[in-house]
Write a structure and sequence with these properties.
Layout lengths: L1 E5 L9 H15 L3 E7 L6 H5 L4 E5 L9 H12 L6 E4 L5 H5 L8 E6 L2 H5 L3 H10 L6 E5 L2 H10 L7 E3 L15 H7 L7 E6 L8 H9 L3 H4 L2 E6 L5 H13 L3 E6 L3 H10 L2 E4 L14 H8 L4 E4 L4 H4 L6 E4 L3 H13 L1 H17 L2 H9 L4 H10 L7 H5 L6
Parallel strand pairs: 1-2, 1-4, 2-3, 4-5, 5-6, 6-7, 8-9, 8-11, 9-10, 11-12, 12-13
Length: 406
């Protein structure tokens, strides 16, 4: 199978779309597909990094998407779909929906678009809906992959599409997060953590919709006997400056042990997961329309055997199974405080949820995601299917067996 994947976000830029594009392309190659990724160059030479990937990357001049770039993306898509006889043309994110739709006449390939959540609300303006309708983005030849049940349901609420063409396909977690990590004792020593400290870790951009302030309020409300034992490690780059300043000020004024570690390389984050006791990310509803379409970071933490405290918003319930791989609560201070206290005080609960969190993360692999998205099969299964579909519908063995009476 030949797949053309067009994305407006890719490495070296960091973000969920870029992770999705890279990981699903890698998984498709493992399953036997030939993949070409078309991605922006961010005004830098990424040829060395690109050659290390198991698929071809073709860069175009550009960076983070702007609507002014739509005409150039239309020309780009029309050019690339005609270069090869692709089986699938995949728009990995919203900026390539219209360009891929307007290229359908140049390819017999199956057209596929992935919706991630936020862009569904962002496309509800009159001008964008008109453009989507005029381009025929969601015509019958196009299938839609949603990254969670929540995203699927939100899409169906906003667009009148045959439900059979919209499939919820949860994201996967990279094998990297299951990899070797520094010892728990060594990492704890590096970060000045005592063996009996209860370590709660958050990995997310320090921005309002991620709910750090609500977590802080919940932690501050706990009794001394619990609060004094919990150390909160906050990992991630800063977001809105006024929000970051407010959080820093309140954290310093609180009677809590909070360590702001800033952005860290994935390898160090993986080590921190191994030295932590549970993960906590309590997103809150965002009035701007941004939503948590899935919540991949919960799975990455689960790969490090961490149960989660999470708020049941957006697609998070697909990443964190309530009372199995973590505690899902409403976005309120009291509910979050109780969940933190439960995991901090109950070692048996942490242990059982950690085991199930690891199993859940292993089940949601990127190969499973690629299999469902592209209708691919692992090589062994594909060979078996080829045998079954050989001439006259007989397997090789069946073709060698004489018919009765001969």
């Amino acid at each position: 199978m030949k797949i053309l994947l067009l994305t407006s976000e890719f490495s070296p830029a960091t973000g969920g779309i870029g992770t999705y594009a890279r990981e699903i392309a890698c998984a498709a190659v493992k399953l036997g597909a030939q993949v070409t990724v078309v991605a922006p160059d961010y005004a830098r030479d990424s040829s060395t990094e690109d050659r290390a990937l198991p698929f071809e990357v073709q860069r175009f001049r550009g960076g983070l998407h702007s609507m002014r770039e739509l005409p150039s993306k239309i020309r780009l898509a029309r050019k690339h779909v005609a270069l090869e006889n692709y089986d699938v043309v995949h728009a990995a994110d919203w900026p390539f929906f219209i360009p891929v739709a307007l290229s359908r006449g140049r390819t017999p390939a199956r057209l596929l678009v992935t919706v991630h959540g936020t862009e569904i609300n962002e496309t509800q303006t009159r001008i964008k809906r008109t453009a989507i309708r005029a381009a025929g983005v969601f015509r019958s030849r196009t299938t839609i992959a949603a990254n969670s049940r929540y995203t699927r349901d939100l899409f169906q609420q906003r667009f009148a599409i045959d439900p059979r063409r919209v499939k919820a396909i949860p994201l996967g977690v990279s094998e990297f997060w299951f990899g070797d990590r520094a010892s728990r004792a060594a990492v704890r020593e590096t970060y000045r953590l005592a063996p009996d400290d209860i370590v709660m870790t958050t990995v997310a951009r320090l921005t309002r919709r991620k709910g750090h302030l609500m977590t802080l309020a919940a932690l501050s409300s706990l009794p001394d006997s619990v609060r004094k034992r919990v150390i909160w490690l906050v990992v991630g780059p800063p977001g809105e400056s006024e929000y970051v300043e407010e959080f820093r000020r309140l954290a310093q004024a609180s009677d809590c042990d909070i360590r702001l570690l800033g952005p860290l390389p994935d390898r160090e984050i993986r080590d921190i997961y191994g030295a932590s006791d549970f993960f906590c990310l309590t997103g809150v509803p965002d009035p701007t329309g941004r939503v948590e379409g899935f919540g991949l970071v919960y799975l990455e933490a689960a790969a490090g055997c961490l149960p989660s405290v999470a708020t049941a918003i957006g697609g998070v319930p697909d990443a964190v199974r309530a009372n199995e791989t973590g505690i899902l609560v409403e976005p309120s201070v009291s509910a979050i405080a109780q969940a933190i206290a439960d995991l901090a005080e109950r070692h048996d609960m942490r242990a059982s949820m950690a085991e199930r969190a690891l199993a859940h993360a292993r089940a949601l692999s990127w190969e499973r995601c690629a299999t469902e998205t592209y209708q691919l099969f692992p090589r062994r299964k594909q060979n078996e299917q080829d045998e079954r579909s050989s001439p006259e519908g007989l397997s090789r063995h069946e073709q060698m067996v004489p018919a009765a009476g001969h």
